Amino acid sequence: MGVGRRKGRVRFCAATVVTAAVLAGSGALAGCGSSGGPPDGGASRRASPAPKPVPVWNRSPRSVAAVGDSITRGFDACVPFSDCPEVSWATGTDSGVDSLATRLVGAPTAAKRSWNEARSGARMADLPGQMAQAARRVPDLVTVMVGANDACQDSVDLMTPVADFRTSFTAAMRRLRTGAPKAQVYVSSVPDLKRLWSTGRDNPLGRQIWKLGICASMLGDAQDDGAAAQRRRETVYDRVVAYNGVLKDVCAKDVRCRYDGGAVFDFRFTGEQLSPWDWFHPSKDGQGELAEIAYRNVTALRAPA
After folding, report:
1. pTM to 2 decimals?
2. pLDDT (tens digit, 9 = 90+) per residue, 228-237?
């Protein structure tokens, strides 16, 4: 008789477990054991805590390689029409700029643990080659700032197509991953060229320099407010926005890549932050602002939206 009751209780518990699983998604019911008493003789079983995931993004990288164009080379920031990499926002050693590398690595060792592979005049099509060079350094962090020259052409018809821009950036990321699979990548947005035009257009010296052909697609005929000129500048603006969309999209596909969320594009350069020789490239003060933006984003707990 006792055995029969025990078997009945076992069948009841099994049925209860099945019913609970169906109704509540649970695989067992507390207090239901093989003998009808508390499981494990009343002892509670506690699952081991799951290990905390290790963050992929390292907020304190110890080496930096920079790729990109004339902005990262510090062009026109020290002397007219020349590179000045010592004031580069990414890898410069000038204390007045306090570059990203200096802030991350420290001034005494920044020069030994940072490399500037950028080239003045570079476009996105040049980035795969630069990335391959950066990968040979096996850096903790690679900074990317490129795209202005893709939009700055003699005419809007010569601007890099968005599809080609995407293809080249994707290829550049692939080249980096081949040689440095664990390197982090910080991608700066392309600056707002239309805002730069608006800031410098009233400077007589700047307008004269612009006539030499600097970013003619945006800066040409700087004082012309006619419909055609406005459409031309708006076309360049839209292309830069599209480039930044590509940078964001491609970067989002790589777990070790962080886009600046449009911080550089949104930054309002003042006259003091533009080169006194061309009113287009960042001055030493402007380079310091770019370094601050980069440091803030690289060391943030979360990537910018």
Report:
1. 0.82
2. 999 999 999 9
